[in-house]
UniProtKB/TrEMBL annotation:
One Pfam family named in its UniProt record: Fer2_2
PANTHER family per UniProt: OXIDOREDUCTASE WITH IRON-SULFUR SUBUNIT (PTHR44379)
Leader sequence residues: none
Database matches in Gene3D superfamilies: 3.10.20.30, [2Fe-2S]-binding domain
Name listed for the protein in its UniProt record: Carbon-monoxide dehydrogenase small subunit
Naturally occurring in which organism (per UniProt): Prauserella marina
Amino acid sequence: MEITVTVNGEAHSADVEPRLLLVHFLRDDLGLTGTHWGCDTSNCGACVVWLDGKPVKSCTVLAVMADGHEVRTVEGLAGADGLDPVQQGFMRCHGLQCGFCTPGMMMTARWLIDNDPDPSEKDIREAISGQLCRCTGYENIVRSVRWAAEHEADAENETPDVEVRA
Ligand code: FES
Ligand code: FES
């Protein structure tokens, strides 16, 4: 089937099998490997992206269901002026260890702060409750999201002073 999906503001057309999952379309067809694929059972949340402005597990969405819709992935988080405050929060508060869960966590965090600029620890834990992290114990993820919320305004144009690896 021929589909056109707008990903991070750019329209992508492709001929895909009806059974193709969005996560595989993003990773394999578009090369956007920031979205991770961690399970086959809709449990881990490593694959979270935005579909029309809302976080979804992209392993539960067929690529054809995204036809004509807008997708935002972790590659679309940083702006022209630098990293998103959420990315800076994870960097500064050590919100990751292996980093496998991080793209999905950050996409949920960005959505949460957009919808609740001052989320409590409980709000944050609830927002990420559908996502698993096997490394951090979640404590530093919560701190990272709080940091982002608290520094939303001033972090926007800040350039990080450490090397950031893809
Ligand atoms: S890959 Fe695990 S929930 Fe999507
Ligand atoms: S940092 Fe390793 S799974 Fe979360």
